[in-house]
């Protein structure tokens, strides 16, 4: 399988190069040159496979000859051995609605589904092809711990994660700083999350430094993350359809950077019988406004009870735009240039019809999040996390929709407690964190301080730069 950039400026590359590249060298996002098709016979045959076996079948055409089947089987086995539920992403019934629990991984958030896989793909490719990777990222909480859990203890990989000192929740901070593997480097900065992002961006823009120290990112634009997320859409369909290719399924997806729901869109393009895909946003509702006929114009980011979705411009939306404009990179570039120039993106009337055919959308306020957590708990005894509550609330008139549950409620117990007066019991991976040993350095929020720390850490480790 070959991969292309949404902006047309990357020579076609295979799966391995696409994963190691992350963001396209032309600033675009990578996509498979053709979307593999899954026919009715395969849908039927695969409908009773477990998550891992299904993942192998679905991923093989995308991976091509980059990873032999037996190696892919082992790699997927390793990736999901860290999950605490034997089904990996169990589908549970909550009253009349179905909830797909994506939070059974080692950090209790849905990002584990993709990052456990990505960590193993990185380790596999580096062991085979040689080289090193030093991952650098900034987090406001959730992504950092899932990224660390994805690569801890892996050869040839180090990870440096910046978080704003004292500004992430104690549990989230401990999820990162209690990981004591020698290849994990937590950095608390004396500043905000925005300072962290600015520093990381600055270091990536220092091309000499980036190349010399093999810096890589682990953010939501890596193709392998989308690939891993396709699997649970097929898995949920298999559980509900019992193999009937005429059965159509719908999903409600709490959306931030558009990676999760884009995987659902791609599953549909592959041939999964999907009826509706519902984009559920919080108060940061640029996508909901756009899909329901308004302008695509970014505003200020608002803080909400569902912080992992506090995003205005969703980075993965560009992957969808590529399909919306008929797989024409020049048209993608023109739309992005106009957005840059005017702050607003215009699409044609015909594209608007396509967009409305592809997605439904709804925005949910903080008050509605709390109401939904309360209602679901009172009626069914099930505790939703505030992100999942956005999806369940958006789908409240659609009993047929499968709602994706993106975090364990115990990760967001402040909101849960506000809604129902009690806290959700923590799963094993969140227990005892406050008593564990931690390791973390505190640095000034400057590029120089972080650059110096990376240099001295790598020099002391003996890794060749
Ligand atoms: C990242 C995240 C989301 C949003 O997913 P996207 O792929 O960015 O749209 C939703 N809920 C939780 C808990 C998350 O961590």
Write the layout of secondary structure elements.
Elements: E1 3-5, H1 15-21, E2 30-32, H2 40-46, H3 51-63, H4 69-80, E3 91-94, E4 97-101, H5 111-129, E5 133-138, H6 142-151, E6 157-164, H7 170-177, E7 184-190, H8 193-205, H9 207-212, E8 215-216, H10 223-241, E9 249-254, H11 259-270, E10 274-281, H12 286-291, H13 317-324, H14 329-342, H15 349-358, E11 360-363, H16 366-380, H17 386-394, E12 401-405, H18 413-420, E13 441-444, H19 447-461
Parallel strand pairs: 4-12, 5-6, 5-8, 6-7, 7-13, 9-10, 9-12, 10-11
Antiparallel strand pairs: 1-2, 3-4
Bound molecules: pyridoxal-5'-phosphate.
Pyridoxal-5'-phosphate is lined by residues 109-111, 142, 220, 254-260, 308-309, 387, 406-407.
Write up this protein.
- The chain has 465 residues and is α/β, with parallel strands linked by helices.
- The model has no long low-confidence stretch (mean pLDDT 94).
- The protein starts with a strand and ends with a helix.
- It is 45% helix and 14% strand.
- The protein has a domain at 91-107 and 224-428: Rossmann fold (3-Layer(aba) Sandwich).
- It is built from 19 helices and 13 strands.
- It is globular, with a radius of gyration of 21 Å.
- The strands form three sheets. The chain has a six-stranded mixed beta sheet, with helices on both faces.
- Pyridoxal-5'-phosphate binds next to helix 11.
- The site of pyridoxal-5'-phosphate has 17 residues, from helix 11.
């Amino acid at each position: 399988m070959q991969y292309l950039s949404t902006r047309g400026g990357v020579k076609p590359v295979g799966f391995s190069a696409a994963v190691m590249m992350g963001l396209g060298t032309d600033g675009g996002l990578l996509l498979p040159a053709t979307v593999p098709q899954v026919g009715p016979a395969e849908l039927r045959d695969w409908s009773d496979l477990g998550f891992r076996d299904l993942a192998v079948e679905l991923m093989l055409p995308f991976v091509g000859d980059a990873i032999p089947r037996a190696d892919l089987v082992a790699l997927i086995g390793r990736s999901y051995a860290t999950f605490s539920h034997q089904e990996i992403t169990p589908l549970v019934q909550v009253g009349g609605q179905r909830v797909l629990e994506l939070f059974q991984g080692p950090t209790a958030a849905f990002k584990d589904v993709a990052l456990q896989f990505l960590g193993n793909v990185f380790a596999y490719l580096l062991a085979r092809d040689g080289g090193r990777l030093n991952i650098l990222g900034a987090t406001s909480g959730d992504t950092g711990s899932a990224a660390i859990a994805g690569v801890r203890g892996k050869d040839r990989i180090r990870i440096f994660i910046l978080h704003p000192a004292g500004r992430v929740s104690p549990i989230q901070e401990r999820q990162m700083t209690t990981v004591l593997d020698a290849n994990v480097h937590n950095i608390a900065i004396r500043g905000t999350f925005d300072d962290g992002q600015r520093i990381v961006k600055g270091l990536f823009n220092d091309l000499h430094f980036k190349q010399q120290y093999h810096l890589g990112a682990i953010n939501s634009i890596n193709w392998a993350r989308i690939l891993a997320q396709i699997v649970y859409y097929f898995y949920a369909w298999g559980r509900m359809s019992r193999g009937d290719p005429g059965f159509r399924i719908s999903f409600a997806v709490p959306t931030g950077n558009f990676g999760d729901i884009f995987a659902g869109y791609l599953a549909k393009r592959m041939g999964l019988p999907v009826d509706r895909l519902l984009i559920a946003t919080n108060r940061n509702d640029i996508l909901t406004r756009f899909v329901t006929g308004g302008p695509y114009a970014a505003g200020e980011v608002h803080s909400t009870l569902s912080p992992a979705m506090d995003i205005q411009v969703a980075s993965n939306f560009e992957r969808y735009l590529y399909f919306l404009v008929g797989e024409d990179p020049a048209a993608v570039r023109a739309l992005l240039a106009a957005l840059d120039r005017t702050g607003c993106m215009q699409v044609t009337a015909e594209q608007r019809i396509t967009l409305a055919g592809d997605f439904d959308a709804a925005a949910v306020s903080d008050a509605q999040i709390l109401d939904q957590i309360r209602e679901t708990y009172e009626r069914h005894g099930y505790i939703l996390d505030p992100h999942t509550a956005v999806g369940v609330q958006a789908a409240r008139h659609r009993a047929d929709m499968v709602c994706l549950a993106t975090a364990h409620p115990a990760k967001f117990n402040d909101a849960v407690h506000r809604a129902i007066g009690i806290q959700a019991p923590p799963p094993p991976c969140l227990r005892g964190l406050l008593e564990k040993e931690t390791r973390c350095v505190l640095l000034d929020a400057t590029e120089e301080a972080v650059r110096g720390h990376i240099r001295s850490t790598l020099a002391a480790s003996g890794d060749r730069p």
